[in-house]
Amino acid sequence: MASLKSALRTAQHVRTATRGALLWGYEQRLAREVGEHGKLPRHLGLILDGNRRFAKAAGLQREMGHSFGADKAHEVLQWCLELGIPSATIWVLSTDNGGRDPEELAHILGLLEREARQLSVDPRIHGNRVRVRAIGQHDNFPPNVLAALNNLEESTAHYDGMRLNIAVGYGGREEITDAVQSYLRGQAAAGKSLTEVAQAITPDDIGAHLYAADQPDPDFIIRTSGEIRLSGFMLWQSVYSEYYFCDVYWPGFRRVDFLRALRDFQGRDRRFGK
């Protein structure tokens, strides 16, 4: 019996090693194909969905799911840097998430503060001259979280490398509302009447007041967890975005999944309504 168990364990180890080798080989092939094709998103959007369900499936506390999700964001940042993707927006916390359990929300905000402080001294950020910006509505954030985000933005504000937007307290409708309000305030300060503004306003006027107005619209948006919906992510800017819905929870998102998504993007014919 003991020898049978030992043989079964050995067979299991061999199967595991074989699967690992096959996956590694497949990943390397994908990386070559993506690199040789050359077409990459100018602005990649990432909807980080599935942290809590990942934790539940693994028998862990939900807070651990968010912690693993934060670690995964670091990995994906590295993948973007390696490929030379110019701009990325990661949606970490929505305005709707503000209604979650207070303990869970406090944990998420604590993670946000920790990650902001770590990024502000991360050699990858400074070595690659990554400019980081937190976008969204942050008025209700604790002072310590705001201070960490502000410090991160200020420490990278002069960089001219990759642009990384961290969407926290973010909602697509809220962004459009903020943009309209900002535009109207500017017109009022210039002495324009409401009638004059209404007659002259254009989509470009609104677009110029969005949170990341100085960056191209996202051309590719990936959502994890298998949910097939937009949830309001970059509503204004995503009119011509290509979407990819990945059937894996965010903490389990692998490099092979990332490369598979990019290969899919490279095979699409973007017509922009023509």
TrEMBL record:
Primary enzyme class: transferase
InterPro entries in UniProt: UPP_synth-like (IPR001441), UPP_synth-like_CS (IPR018520), UPP_synth-like_sf (IPR036424)
Manner of cofactor binding, per the entry note: Binds 2 magnesium ions per subunit.
SUPFAM superfamilies xrefs: Undecaprenyl diphosphate synthase
Binding site for Mg(2+): 49, 242
GO molecular function: ditrans,polycis-polyprenyl diphosphate synthase [(2E,6E)-farnesyl diphosphate specific] activity; magnesium ion binding; Z-farnesyl diphosphate synthase activity
KW Isomerase (keyword) present: no
Keyword Metal-binding: yes
Pfam family, one: Prenyltransf
Function recorded in the entry: Catalyzes the condensation of isopentenyl diphosphate (IPP) with allylic pyrophosphates generating different type of terpenoids.
Protein name, as recorded: Isoprenyl transferase
